[in-house]
Amino acid sequence: MNLSKKEIVDILKSPDMDIFNEADTIRKKYVGDGVHLRGLIEFSNICKCNCLYCGLQSSNKFVKRYRLSKIDIIDIVKKGVEEGFKTIVLQSGEDEFYSTKLLCEIISEIKNFNVALTLSIGEKSFEDYKAFKDAGADRYLLRIETTDENLYKKMHPNADFENRKRCLYDLKRLGYETGTGCLVGLPGQSVESLADDILFFKELNADMVGIGPFIPHPDTPLNKEISGDLNLAIKVMAITRVLLKDINIPATTAMESLNPNGRLLALQSGANVVMPNLTDELHKEMYEIYPNKVSINKLDLEKRLKTINRYIVLDSFGFRNH
Ligand code: 5AD
Q1: For 120-140, what is each residue's pLDDT tens digit?
Q2: How far does residue 55's CA lie from ligand 1's centre (Å)?
Q3: CA 92–ligand 1 middle distance (angstroms)
Q4: For residue 29, how far is its CA from the centre of ligand 1 (angstroms)?
Q5: According to the model, what pLDDT value does residue 321 have?
């Protein structure tokens, strides 16, 4: 299906919720009732960026910073694999301590466990992305955050919107399953720009799209702002499902953090992926992108999925179209 920008804006502005059911039907038809799990490892909260909304921004002096060693990371991977995870996601701030060589070593050691590997480590050069791919990385997550260039500039001091887009197109060109996404409810963000975000996901032909409501962090300059609207965030996600059909869409932690039922609502409105956090308790707490980040474990999730007639899939890597 194709929707024009105006049609998307109309859906976003209307109180009508039909799009949620439509997205649920399309999700069922194209990717089924199975919910894929991705085991997330937050291996460093050190970041050179200063994104206004993010609790890990470089100017936040209250954060206790940490980085995990290769051995620590592999230990967590081992536990995840024992629990049955078939995809590992390595996420960190933009931390230059991890050289391309070190990252490639970590990637190839993880690939020895016969898992799919997703990286989420920010903006890099084409050569770096190629080296990670050659070392075995399968997927890459890099949210565009917002396609409104003025807002992008305000939210990301010293960052370059064109470079972010370049990264995403490089990742696609290198054959990564490429994930992007946006924040919903940034101060000054318009509904029109959310429609542009959705059209951007389509133009990129993103393989994965993660959408989350903005949640103000007390130690950032946006601490007086209000949270994004969960319903609107789910709507952006639902329209994305309707337009991109067979992609992977996570029910994001930020949705659950705003509402104890957020994740299930998302799974009933187009989402088919959940990303449980495998990071140990101590470091998980220190990876505070936004406050009250909730965790979910596999057993709880399994029980809750049963109530909506869905189930966990652990016997596949969960690639798009597989
Ligand atoms: N609220 C919600 N999501 C946030 N992110 C960063 N800061 C916040 C916040 N305050 C999201 C960004 C980033 C992802 C890892 O976390 O979209 O890409």
Answers
A1: 999 999 999 999 999 999 999
A2: 8
A3: 12
A4: 30
A5: 67
Helices 191-204 and 5-13, packing angle to 10 deg: 130
CA angle, 50 as apex, 44 and 55 as ends, to 5°?
60
Q: Which of 49, 54, 292 to mutate to test the pocket of ligand 1 (most atoms within 8 A of CB)?
A: 54
Tens-digit pLDDT profile for residues 55-99: 999 999 999 999 999 999 999 999 999 999 999 999 999 999 999
- The DSSP letter of residue 163 is H
Query: What is the domain range of residue 211?
Result: 5-313
Q: Is the pLDDT of residue 322 over 60?
A: no
| CA 53 – ligand 1 centroid, Å | 7
Domain count across the chain: 1
Six token digits for residue 221? 């300059």
Does residue 136 sit within a domain? yes
Pocket perturbation via mutation, ligand 1, pick of 89, 236, 289 by most ligand atoms within 8 A of CB: 289
Give residue ranges with CB within 6 A of ligand 1. 53-54, 143, 145, 183, 212, 214-215, 217, 254, 289-290
Structure tokens at 148: 């409104």
Distance, CA of 179 to CA of 113 (rounded, Å): 23
Report if residue 321 sits inside a domain.
no
* CATH number, residue 220: 3.20.20.70
Q: Would you say residue 147 lies in a domain?
A: yes
The amino acid occupying position 144 is I
Dihedral sign (CA 153, 257, 121, 174): negative
Token pair, residue 282, equals 């101590």
